[in-house]
Amino acid sequence: MSRGRKVRILIAKPGLDGHDRGAKVIARGFRDAGFEVIYTGLHQTPEQIVAAAIQEDVDGIGLSSLAGAHDYLFPRVVELLKERGAEDIIVFGGGIIPEEDISALTQCGVKAIFTPGTSIEEAVNWVRKNVNPRN
Amino acid sequence: MFQEDQFKKVEEEKKKWIEDLSKILSETPERLPRFTTVSDLEIKGLYTPDDIQGIDYSRDTGFPGIYPFTRGVQPSMYRGRLWTMRMFSGLGGPEETNQRFRYLLDHGETGLSIAFHYPTLMGYDSDSPMARGEIGKCGVAIDTLKDMEILFEGIPLDKVTTSMTINPPASILLAMYIVVAEKQGVRKKEIGGTIQNDMLKEFIAQKTFMLPPKPSLRIIVDTIEYCTKEVPRWNTISISGYHIREAGATAVQELAFTLADGMAYVEAATERGLNVDDFAPRLSFFFDSHIDFFEEMAKFRAARRMWAKIMRERFMAKNPRSWMLRFHTQTAGCSLTSQQPFNNVVRTAYEALAAVLGGTQSLHTNSLDETYAIPTEEAATIALRTQQILAEETGVGNTIDPLAGSYFVEALTHRIEEGAWEYIRKIDEMGGMVAAIERGYPQAEISDAAYKYQKQIDSGEKVIVGVNKYATDHPPITIWRMSPEIEKRQLKRLQEVKQERNQLKVKDCLQNIRKASENGKNLMPHIIDAVREYATIQEICDVWREVFGRYSDPGYF
Predict the structure, then answer these.
(1) pLDDT tens track for B438-452
(2) Is B360 helix (H, G, I), strand (E, B) or coil?
(3) Is the N or C terminus of chain B more exposed, i.e. has fewer CB atoms within 10 Å?
(4) What is the Cα–Cα distance from B216 to B198, expressed in whole angstroms?
(5) pTM for the whole thing?
(6) Which residues form the domain of B98?
(7) Is A92 a member of any domain?
């Protein structure tokens, strides 16, 4: 039934970080690539992000952080999705994230981390390959 | 600059040159179909006297220290005094940042600049649920006066000036600085420094906002009114293009939106009844120095000329100091790459050179590791040394505005100025910057420019070395990590301060802030009283959030 449905992605800015250039460029790039995109806007708690993801019935969440709080905020989103029984929503992220943090984040269940210099195309291709319409 | 007959001669010679050139190009075409600046302004292959025909030296360029200040705000510029080397720093708690400040001062830094962590920037304390995961990460954690006392331990506030990148709670941090100085025996008339205090660009670009635009402006005008009388050496706003540019704006947009913000502040302060010449000399500016060398230089020159005209012609300021656009510059964080990070040293050096040739009053140079984390001491030292080499080895400060008179630089300065006026006219038609922001106009312009630029990078039209050209693997670099102990120490100290202070006095002070917030009396004296009693930043901001309401991101993309 949902086979032909477009992939729905929530682009989210967790925490107090105000750097939204990357998140907005990616949101627009995803929209132009044919995904349905919902953008949370800034300053969202992990709880708000997970509630929005479930309410909007998204297939993936793209988290953006450029302020160093990714090591708490990203795993927290994954954890809350599990608690809400929505662990099939794919979580990925990007921003100012040191290389040595990436493996810890992927171990927590964040599926991919995109660092500065990533092209829109690269991120789009990753989503096409790894995020499918749920159910 | 040229006689009529000289122009004719140049025109004839140019015609011939173009003919010769087109023959050559028909065989070996140029490297690119278009040559453009980083902001996508198309640049010609050659500029000649006819490109600056309309420019009148005395009217448009003139002399340093004299209206319209195109060549610089001081008559002697760097021959008199070098720019202030002011490294934006803040990491972990006040102890770590104090140590970094002292280290940088010992290594020849000449001014301080505080980077606060996100909870402080947004008006939350370290013990707020909103602060989880963020303590000390992106700057220094400051919750109460106690933290500011530790931050400035051993740093005499009558000997150094301090810039604070702080916006919604700017008045609170200024109040803390005043009280720390007072405790050091330094009167508020003697202290010098800057609070960023520029809320309009927060709505447009940096996005650390708290209250809606109108009450935000009201608190800013309170600080202007207070400092004009009580803290005369303080720069009350640092009207900032930096964040606008970093969010993706072009050079022209950065310039236009920044000056339009400045105009909105002048209007708000004069509406309060302040005399423009009393406060305008203490407005300062802050620009980005991006990677396109000539575009940036030209932007700085155009900025001075435009602000001088705005202040004299539009706001009828009489004091020449009101006409002067004094500015701080930061090299472009967004030009740095995480790939091959040592290349960032080179980028920063070129950007610093553009800032200095553009006549900046102070400069922060980014560190090579800032695409990963807060700079290490070593990386920050290289960045500071970059400025020192520029100042003391290269000789760029030997003569004032050395690129003036270049056909290209003068033509580009003029062109950027014209582009910025065009935007300002549009914003005026919308009813000024506050109205334009409410319509989302500058936000949308910036998003469009950012997206277009990213597409140009993705297609390879704009080259980023190490990213879309000459990409190779690079070994990892050492980066700064925060010890988890810092978070514990910060929370413990906050708890102790809250226990030990005089609760009744704090309550009274917060009540006075509430009353002044409601009745429109100047807030500054009440904020100073409150921080002296160790009221926390969040306690004060919570009063404002209750009285004025919150602003939340409309989430355009």
Answers:
(1) 999 999 999 999 999
(2) coil
(3) N
(4) 9
(5) 0.97
(6) 57-459
(7) yes
